[in-house]
Amino acid sequence: MADQLEVTMEDYYQGTFDEVDDPGTVATEIVPDDDVDLAVVPKGIYVGTGGDIAMIGARQPSGSAAVIWRNIPSGALIPFRPRRILASGTTASDLIAVQ
Hints:
Layout lengths: L26 E3 L14 E6 L1 E7 L9 E6 L4 E2 L3 E5 L6 E6 L1
Antiparallel strand pairs: 1-7, 2-5, 2-7, 3-4, 3-6
């Protein structure tokens, strides 16, 4: 794993409670997968290249079918907390989980 960058700047908000509607502080690439849940449920999804996204919500019961969000534009930030983003039915790309 790559070396961690030490943050030396002052962060006035460090240690405050992190609510779901607060700005994200971690971003990770999403690789859609039909069988594997995301490692962490994000606060939202950034869409780099627009299209459709097949998602299963964090609180949907096991075995639930994905809902396809259609025609999401490039640069959109989706305020939805998925547990899985499926490869089947997803045409959008360059997806980032905002945590």
